[in-house]
Predict the structure.
Amino acid sequence: MPDSASTAAAIVIAGAGECGTRAAFALREQGWDGPVILAGAEPSPPYERPPLSKTGELKPICDPAALREADITFLPGAEAAGLDTAAHVLELAGGRRLPYRSLLLATGARARRLPFGGAPVHVLRTHADSVALRGRLAPGRRVAVIGGGFIGLELASSAAALGCAVTVIELGPRLMGRAVPARVAAVMAQRHVAAGVDIRCGTGVTGLERTASGVMITLAEGGIVEADVVVAGVGAAPETSLAEAAGIEVADGIVVDVRFATSAPDVFAAGDCCRYPHPLYDDRPLRLESWRAAQEHGTAAARAMLGGTEPYAGVPWFWTDQYDVKMQMAGLSAGHDRAVVRGNPDTGRSFAVFYLREGTLIAVDAVNRAPEFMMSRQLIAERARIDPARLGDESVAMKDMRT
Ligand SMILES: Cc1cc2nc3c(=O)[nH]c(=O)nc-3n(C[C@H](O)[C@H](O)[C@H](O)COP(=O)(O)OP(=O)(O)OC[C@H]3O[C@@H](n4cnc5c(N)ncnc54)[C@H](O)[C@@H]3O)c2cc1C
């Protein structure tokens, strides 16, 4: 049986992470005074994921009282298990049915796992994952991180800081191969080596075996790594199962338009789970895993659920903290025809690399360079044409780049 008739006019959100929670508050900020139901599969109130791989702290997205004050019905431990798009009903595991006027799927992503049994392997996506992993990090422990992307490397840096003996095993020829160019990755690799981390690039893992003293990892090239704790940081897959089962179009992410509308009437999807066409990049469909994008998607999806028609065109941006290095990236550098360096990458301390296409700034990677990052975000959004010589000239302040 559906819940009471009043919920038929409800806006229902499946997934109480960064995107879903932001969307719930944005509905109120944008004047919706009907029911808002925020159903999250996890048992805890909404929390931030970025600290899980950095400090490990549990940082709430909001005070639970703020949800009550905004009259948002928050349902923890409420996994959405079925969706009838014709009847406009979301069904929770356990059978509770939530009729909706509009539905937002903000189900995020789940950590990919290694295709081997044989030994316990940690992943890091949820607070529960973090508690399980942090409990095993201690000085002297041998920690093997499989995957040299952001999350694996952040974890490597925090484990090294705790006194663990860390090995990073990366299949690709270098670290962070999907996300940053070689010269930027090289700076981070040096920082890890300086902290005592053993970096093994260009080698896959072919098997794991539990031994009397821990876990033995067999490498494709024939060597082995022995560890007490093994963590897989091998990426995340969009959580699309609910949408797929309901017949909604999915293609490595729930396919949405510039307003986050899916192929089903009154069903929207946003955050890590969606793939959307980006006006800044010739409407190329993108799937991002970005904290800030998830928030902005939530706000934009709320606007769309209330009838807004404005397309979302936020500049993608991301950051990573490893040791004393804050790397901030804005825009997408694919397709650039010129790269300009500001500062000296050889010192590894502070520099920025700008990417231009036909004279237009399209992306930046900034290492301990907040002003370059902040200003570039604006310039990328404006599709500003910038003189490359000025970008590379430290005597020209970033705020003066337009002139
Ligand atoms: C360890 C870690 C570190 C990160 N660090 C950074 C960083 O430094 N910088 C950065 O920009 N980004 C970072 N990110 C990425 C960022 O956290 C994500 O992009 C962001 O959390 C995505 O928000 P979301 O709401 O789309 O998804 P999530 O935050 O994944 O939230 C989705 C929620 O939906 C729930 N859910 C799933 N299925 C269902 C269902 N059927 N019913 C109900 N609920 C469901 C999930 O349990 C989850 O709570 C990091 C991510 C991780 C995991």
